[in-house]
TrEMBL record:
Annotated source species: Streptomyces cavourensis
Disordered: annotated segments: 1-39
Protein name as annotated: Glycogen debranching protein GlgX
Pfam families recorded: Alpha-amylase, CBM_48
Residue ranges annotated for the Glycosyl hydrolase family 13 catalytic domain, each copy included: 230-641
InterPro entries in alphabetical order: GH (IPR017853), GH13_cat_dom (IPR006047), GlgX_Isoamylase_N_E_set (IPR044505), Glyco_hydro_13_N (IPR004193), Glyco_hydro_b (IPR013780), Glycogen_debranch_GlgX (IPR011837), Ig-like_fold (IPR013783), Ig_E-set (IPR014756)
NCBIfam families named in the record: glgX_debranch
Top-level taxonomy: Bacteria, Bacillati, Actinomycetota, Actinomycetes, Kitasatosporales
Family according to the record: Belongs to the glycosyl hydrolase 13 family.
Length: 775
């Protein structure tokens, strides 16, 4: 390190160093150098001309041709005079200079200046740089956290457009842009750390996109026919006995015939993968010997997470992911990605410097009125500033890449309300939603919003515009409350079972705008929902303080696992009730992997850091008859749903006859066989009859013919004792055939009982009966 003149510092009344002219109480960076280091590093206060000159003088730098500013990222191609190489392009709006750094297998680094600047994009073409090359960026500029400027060229930065990432984020002190262990922690983020982070951070990898998608056929399943299966790539395959050990926990494992066979036998139409963008582990987890398992901590929006690759991490993960998508498509299964564009793994001002913070902190993140601090609508320390054009471009470029080059069929947006914020408030005319609506690629794929964030006004269920579907947590709450006997009346349940028209019947939206779910990755599994009333998250190391307390669960009489056969039989019956209710409801059902076979997390309702048997799917459950029966029931109800269009309507119910000689498309019945009155909806009820007319389905098929189907009566009874239910007679039905009875353990064959209209039917305690109107 060469000698450097240090600025004179004055002190505020508290004894903190202050730049001359800075208001008292605002501590400046403790060490602010104004010279160039031997390694080419540039410190605060250096002008762009001097910075560029220093970078040009960096040792071992090969020839850099001007290249092109678009596309962003590292793209291998044939350059001038037919010379093969890689074009590097990085948006870094406020930077003073940028180096692309190439790394050999032994860690040797070659720094190459990008001296061309076009519309705030630094770019250059490096002849001879080929796929497999590991690289990163060093970005030079001012260090002044008080104004939001946090450039630090000592830190190697991941390319936001990197197609593959090699290495693991371990977060030692060297990867922080500030002095993480500074004694005065309340100003620690203002003290620049001059140590080189390159030996400790993963590198981007140049990838050549040469896969041929000509033979791939997207299933293009209509929304109304869709059944979503939420799964974790690693957790779904890690313990599967029929997948080769070397493929378990990987994309190749999910592409294996044994994994796909379960999905097809079950009858789901789409898998929704928990985050597969490259992500990093949080420091507080690493300190406890844990890891981020779910992956909601993204740092690379173009790169498949490297740890899920069986074939290698020097670009091979890209091809492996594509082959997985192709295998699922060949089985008729769509691939939906759970994506986290609302925040990054760099956290708040005390977080590491991995990518965007060091490229242009003010350009990528929402900052508070005090620009040293981050606006946090996500609960994760930072929020991407989607209103900024470069951030919006990063997100939409990423989305298009995963559709056009990686083959995926849709996205579920984590904390989507944060993306829909304009300057502060959630705005359904926001730039993000407007761009998606007009984009010729993105408006044609499946778009699912988690319609809330943690900021003021962030709860937006029912508010997203047409093209979007939404996770409907009001469905989850109503169904859970009904089956545990906690609903004050049945008004809300009626809406939830029939597509939630109170939320979605506007702007041309359809019932499939509602993604119905009883469980999700976040919370209890279905089995735990009927086995625990309280969370048991001690394994997370947070004193059982993490995870929600609003579980709306009922343990059937004992907390946790039980040896009581009556309690266990009741729990299995409740599982059948919950699954059947979900799969018969109007809207798009979402199952969570393993719920159909009784998976448990031991009462942990926040297993985000449990990359172990707690979080993995236990396939040995299928060796137990009671859980095989539950899986068979799930598959059977899904076949019913697929066979009968009346169970997957494309339009909301009207409560009126669609034809002069028809019945009303929907009717509700009380236990005594009469239609429910307005007063009935405001009273507590444990028993509900729902009549769906197959003669009165609005719309026509692909040939323009009317859609007709059988009619059904579903009876839901959440009471602890059997009840008598009078079956509606003419004109609703002369006779009924019993198709499904969840009180039965054995669901191999339909009951087949035929009953006359007007018959008083005994409905078993806590059960769902489905009856088909017989000819």
């Amino acid at each position: 390190m060469s000698s450097a003149a240090e600025q004179e510092a004055v002190q505020d009344p508290a004894g903190r160093a202050v730049e001359p002219g800075r208001p008292p109480g605002r501590a400046a960076p403790v060490t602010v150098r104004t010279e160039i280091t031997e390694s080419g590093g540039i410190t605060a206060g250096t002008g762009i001309a001097a910075a560029t000159e220093a970078v040009r003088a960096a040792p071992r730098a090969p020839v850099v041709w001007p290249g092109a500013p678009m596309p962003l990222g590292a793209r291998f191609r044939v350059g001038p005079d037919g010379v093969a190489g890689t074009n590097f392009a990085l948006w870094a709006g406020g930077a003073e200079a940028v180096e692309v750094c190439l790394f050999e297998a032994d860690g040797a680094e070659t720094r190459c200046p990008l001296t061309e600047l076009t519309h705030e994009i630094w770019h250059g073409f490096l002849p001879g740089v080929r796929p497999g090359q590991r690289y990163g960026y060093r970005v030079h500029g001012r260090w002044d956290p008080w104004t939001g400027a946090r450039w630090n060229a000592a830190k190697l930065l991941l390319d936001p457009y990197a197609r593959a990432v090699d290495g693991t984020f371990t977060l030692p002190p060297e990867v922080y842009g500030h002095m993480r262990d500074w004694p005065d922690q309340h100003v620690a983020d203002t003290v620049r750390d001059e140590r080189d982070s390159a030996p400790y951070v993963p590198k981007g990898v140049v990838v050549h996109d040469d896969d041929d998608w000509a033979e791939d056929r997207r299933p293009k399943t209509p929304w109304a026919d869709s059944v979503i299966y939420e799964l974790h790539v690693r957790g779904f395959t890690k313990l599967h006995p029929d997948i080769p050990p070397e493929l378990r926990g990987t994309y190749a494992g999910l592409a294996h015939p044994a994994a796909i066979d379960h999905l097809t036998r079950l009858g789901v139409t789409a898998v929704e993968l928990l985050p597969v963008h490259q992500f990093a582990h949080e420091d507080h987890l690493l300190r406890r010997g844990l890891h981020n398992y779910w992956g909601y901590n993204s740092i690379g929006y173009f790169a498949p997470h490297a740890d899920y690759s069986a074939s290698g991490t020097a670009g091979q993960q890209v091809g492996e992911f594509k082959r997985m998508v192709h295998a699922l498509h060949s089985a008729g299964i769509e691939v939906i990605l759970d994506v986290v564009y609302n925040h990054t793994a760099e956290a708040g001002e005390l977080g590491p410097m991995l990518s965007l913070r060091g490229i242009d902190n003010r350009g990528y993140y929402r900052l508070q009125h005090d620009p040293r601090r981050y606006a946090d609508y996500t609960g994760c320390g930072n929020t991407l500033h989607v209103v900024q054009p470069q951030v919006l471009r990063l997100i939409t470029d990423s989305l298009r890449y995963w559709v056009t080059e990686m083959g995926v069929d849709g996205f579920r947006f984590d904390l989507a309300a944060a993306l829909a914020r304009s300057m502060h408030d959630v705005d359904m005319l926001s730039p993000f939603l407007a761009v998606i609506a007009q984009d010729p690629v993105l408006r044609r794929v499946k778009l699912i919003a988690e319609p809330w964030d943690v900021g003021n006004g962030g709860y937006q269920v029912g508010a997203f515009p047409p093209l979007w579907t939404e996770w409907n947590d009001r469905y989850r709450d109503a169904v859970r409350d009904f089956w545990r006997g906690a609903l004050p009346d049945v008004r809300d349940l009626g809406y939830r079972l029939t597509g939630s028209s109170d939320l979605y019947a506007w702007g041309g939206r359809r019932p499939y705008a509602s993604v119905n779910f009883v469980t999700a990755h976040d919370g209890f599994t279905l089995r735990d929902l009927v086995s625990y009333e309280h969370k048991h998250n001690e394994a997370n190391g947070e004193g059982n303080r993490d995870g929600t307390n609003d579980n709306r669960a009922w343990n059937c009489g004992a907390e946790g696992e039980s040896d009581d056969p009556e309690i266990n039989a009741l729990r299995r019956r409740q599982l059948r009730n919950l699954l059947t209710t979900l799969l018969l409801s109007t809207g798009v059902p979402m199952l969570v992997a393993g719920d159909e076979m009784g998976r448990t997390q031991g009462g942990n309702n926040n297993a985000y850091c449990q990359d172990n048997e707690i979080g993995w799917l236990d396939w040995s459950l299928l060796e137990q008859p009671e859980w095989r029966e539950l899986t068979a029931l799930t598959a059977r109800v899904l076949r019913l749903r697929q066979t009968h269009p009346v169970l997957r309507r494309r339009a909301f119910f009207s409560g009126r006859a669609q034809a002069p000689d028809g019945l009303r498309d929907l009717a509700w019945f009380a236990r005594d066989g009469r239609e429910m009155t307005e007063g009935d909806w405001y009273a507590p009820a444990a028993t509900l009859g729902l009549y769906l007319s197959g003669r009165d389905i609005p719309g026509r098929d692909a040939r323009g013919e009317p859609v007709t189907d059988d009619s059904f009566l579903a009876v839901l009874h959440a009471g602890a004792e059997p009840v008598a239910f009078e079956l509606p007679g003419a004109p609703w039905a002369e006779r009924y055939e019993l198709v499904l009875d969840t009180s039965r353990e054995d669901q191999a064959e339909p009951p087949g009982t035929v009953l006359d209209g007007g018959t008083e039917l005994t409905v078993p305690a806590r059960s769902v009966l489905l009856l088909r109107v017989a000819a």
